[in-house]
Design brief:
- Chains A, B: GO terms for molecular function: homoserine O-acetyltransferase activity; serine O-acetyltransferase activity.
- 2 copies of one chain form a homodimer.
- With about 500 residues, the first copy, chain A, is α/β, with parallel strands linked by helices.
- Chain A folds into 2 domains: about 300 residues, Rossmann fold, CATH 3.40.50.1820; about 100 residues, Rna Polymerase Sigma Factor, Chain: A (Orthogonal Bundle).
- Chain A has 16 helices and 10 strands.
- The first copy, chain A, has an 8-stranded mixed sheet, sandwiched between helices. Chain A has a two-stranded parallel ribbon with strand order 4-5.
- In chain A, strand 7, helix 5 and strand 8 form a beta-alpha-beta unit.
- The longest helix of chain A is centred in the first third of the chain and has 18 residues.
- The N and C termini of chain A lie far apart (about 60 Å).
- The N terminus of chain A is likely disordered.
- At the A-B interface, helix 1, helix 2, helix 3, helix 4 and helix 6 of A face helix 1, helix 2, helix 3, helix 4 and helix 6 of B.
Chain lengths: ~500, ~500
């Protein structure tokens, strides 16, 4: 069959080559082709993918509304902030201590809740978000739009609202109601936004902010701290900072130590964003936002959220085909490729960037992605931060008691049940175990995905190993297959949801 | 030991917290810290990583020399083009047929050679480059600077100059002496550069250009076609287009079909480049080049050239430390992180981008990376290009003869000796095998690297499998370990060089 196909191709193409004249004769090296299409060459090509940046800029410019109020602090923020009616806000009027810089004088925390708080206030799950998510994890009566974890929250779901009272906040540094770089700087006499006067924050700072809300709500102890991606970091940090106030910890596709690969990908995003002239060193709130830089950054981020195998299946090498283009084209001639997005994988990334670039604040991306980079729970790193190491929870494990601060197997591998000991354990594994000692007595679910290129499966194994080395005997560990990569936590309701439900019950 | 360390940390930090007052008290949730450093917050931070773009722009501006000649076609190209005396140039005055567009009216090919051409002209190795390399693969008497493959070329080396005459060209579309977007457009009345009037080219077009040079040099048949990365693509394409003129094919970390992951990474690079206002839709040759976009693009590319495990070993989570910074800092306080490059992985990527952005032409990056994306040797793809499928070389293999166009094992796996049959062979594998039939009778060395994230090891296995399915019984296949990723071909003289030497002898 193949031989005959090949012969047909050769025959058909030789004919096509002859009939199309000089334009389409190929592969024959010495074919002399004297004709030129000078008119076509002299014409400058069009680049719709470049023009769209200017078009977007014009749209934003015309939509910016300037209030006549002399106290106006500039135009409305150009990204789609949710209506303040769609979430609750807690105003914390006390300073919030920070890891690296002087305290924030005050802060707002936007949050939403699902389910009913028990009279004993002992059924609370604190849900932590990834980088760019708002507090809107699931639909509410105030905001019926589906949330980012819609299928995981509700009666009988992974986070069961018949049983639990679930709280999700917009993270410190974010732009969906919680204090971040776009918020008014209380120390600025004109009340202008912080912009890059906002201090560099840490994952620990995000968690500390969330616990001011728990104090306000009178929640002394969480039933569980649950998070995915950066939320997994926060979840671990919550158990570490407040071991007596966290009953269980869930980390889905998170890590206790950002590795240089993931820092590299986030650095690339920050670099393209900060190079956008509109970024203006972060002071763009009274002008045009760096929408092009944010689009380019999101394109890069999107590459890390899925996996090569998924794109092989979903897009392969397919190209976009505009109907009029297809009609106009002589079917015997090859399709002419473009330098603008052409393959479906390109139009997909372009679309993801375009969708995001007016929905999020560029400075929030910079600060929160930096906080992710800085996250490192090895003991030397924690020591260098002057973060005082809290004692482990006073509740001993169900099995043989382990002394506080006395890891059970620091010198030998803990013998994970769900995966074999690492052949070449990372040199920082003992340091990570030492840093995780405060989590010793808290049951922890670690779930990772083998196709994840951002929070790799090696990091998941390392986390589970380190927790066990730290003496934690209640570590549940799962690896998921599939091709969804890092985004599995948003998509795989059956496996991710099932593991969480089982662990929480 | 750990327990005592932890207790010391807690004790030391509690003391430090007290002595440093409000600034460094952390982790204690309810600590009320009323002080503010308003002066520090009101100050706008500095961003040297952003300022450097403007500084670079000023440097370029002042270095651009305008000739007084009225026929001047603009300032000198701002990237460091090698001296024309350092390479030879062949001017091909006939049109060169192209895959997608009308022929190029004429072209120059820059090339360098090593070794001595045998009287029978039968000892020629054509060496193909990766994306951004020049013809300067190794030092010559005209240009004693080390080349990009210095340690692989010379007496007794992988490409042995005692035995072979090695030719390396700058690729079509490049900017180091061969015709590309920066070349004068012969159809432009003022002789201005093509810029983006340059046609989109294919890997096949690059090879066709190289064979005009071989014709000029009177080389009827190559001893071998050798290439790494994009050079591997060209090497396969040379064997495919001219099966009777290529004795052996070497593909190191190449592929016969670009996958969507690699297209995504190159798309991200093109996007940031084309969004640079200096890019000006490609018409920047009489002004400032898109140096910032090119730097950002190179940063992204660099991420794909090495591997996470290498960065873990080489950089880990180390940060840069400026001597005066370290001196000024109170050692009891945490180091304050910056939003500009701070981790060594960031300063490394920044440095790589900075080094590259004035050494290369942005339009060449766009055109050549696009040609890589377009490369697909499956039969349906070749058919859609109207590339006529040449017959296999007339030389039958040493072992049992295989009929031309009659693949030996198209329906069953060929039983690779060096790796097990793929558990889930890609659905396009039979199509790729059908496309590779013209290479049936040419010995092919396929070498890949397990840590390569750009040209993955799965693609190497796929290529070897497809060649065998196409009936090629002389496929040599090796996989290398190590942590150098895609760049292994530049670094691993022992293993890469050894495999080539063995295969060529």
């Amino acid at each position: 069959m193949l031989a005959s196909t090949s012969r047909n191709v050769v025959r058909r193409l030789k004919t096509a080559g002859r009939s199309a004249g000089c334009q389409w004769m190929r592969a024959e090296l010495s074919t002399s082709v004297p004709c030129r299409d000078t008119a076509a060459r002299a014409e400058r090509p069009s680049f719709p993918c470049v023009d769209q940046h200017a078009a977007r800029q014009s749209r934003i410019l015309s939509s910016l509304t300037h209030a006549p109020d002399p106290c106006d602090t500039g135009p409305e923020v150009p990204y789609a902030r949710p209506s303040p009616q769609s979430y609750q806000t807690y105003h914390h009027s006390q300073p919030l201590p920070l890891t690296y810089f002087e305290p924030l004088p005050e802060l707002d925390i936007a949050y939403e809740t699902w389910g009913t708080l028990s009279p004993a206030r002992d059924n609370v799950i604190l849900l932590h978000t990834g980088l760019s998510a708002s507090s809107h994890a699931a639909s509410t009566s105030q905001n019926p739009a589906p949330g980012w974890w819609e299928k995981f929250i509700g009666p009988g779901r992974a986070l069961d609202t018949k049983e639990f009272f679930i709280i999700c906040t917009n993270v410190l540094g974010g732009c969906y109601g919680t204090t971040g770089p776009a918020s008014s700087d209380p120390t600025d006499p004109t009340g202008k936004p912080y912009a890059t006067r906002f201090p560099v924050i840490s994952i620990f700072d995000m968690v500390r902010a969330q616990f001011t809300l728990l104090d306000y709500l009178g929640v002394e102890k969480l039933y569980a701290s649950v998070g995915c991606s950066m939320g997994g970091m926060q979840s671990l940090a919550a158990g570490w900072m407040y071991p007596d106030r966290v009953g269980k910890v869930v980390s889905i596709s998170g890590t206790a130590r950002s590795n240089p690969s993931s820092i590299a990908m986030r650095f690339a995003q920050r670099s393209v964003l900060m190079a956008d002239p509109n970024w203006n060193k972060g002071f763009y709130y009274d002008g045009l936002p760096p929408h092009t830089g944010l689009k380019l950054a999101r394109q890069i981020a999107t590459i890390t959220y899925r996996s090569g195998p998924e794109w092989d299946i979903r897009f392969g090498r397919q190209v976009r085909e505009l109907p009029d283009e297809a009609k106009a084209r002589d079917p015997s001639l090859p399709r002419q490729p473009a330098l603008c997005p052409d393959f479906l994988i390109e139009t997909y990334l372009d679309h993801q960037g375009e969708q995001f670039c007016l929905k999020y604040d560029a400075n929030s991306l910079i600060y929160i992605s930096k906080a992710m980079d800085l996250f490192d729970m090895t003991l030397p790193a924690l020591t260098s931060l002057n973060l005082s190491l809290p004692p482990p929870s006073s509740t001993p494990p169900d099995s043989d008691a382990v002394s506080p601060h006395q890891p059970a197997h620091l010198s030998s591998h803990s013998g994970s049940k769900s995966h074999p000991p690492p052949p070449n354990p990372a040199p920082h594994l003992p340091d990570l175990a030492a840093g995780l000692v405060p989590l010793q007595n808290i049951p922890v679910l670690v779930l990772g995905v083998q196709s994840d290129i951002l929070f790799t499966v090696e990091q998941q194994r390392e986390l589970a190993d380190a927790l066990r080395m730290a003496g934690n005997e209640r570590v549940s560990y799962y690896e998921l297959g599939g091709v969804w990569g890092h985004d599995t936590f948003l998509l795989d309701v059956q496996n991710v949801g099932g593991a969480i439900r089982g662990f929480l019950s």
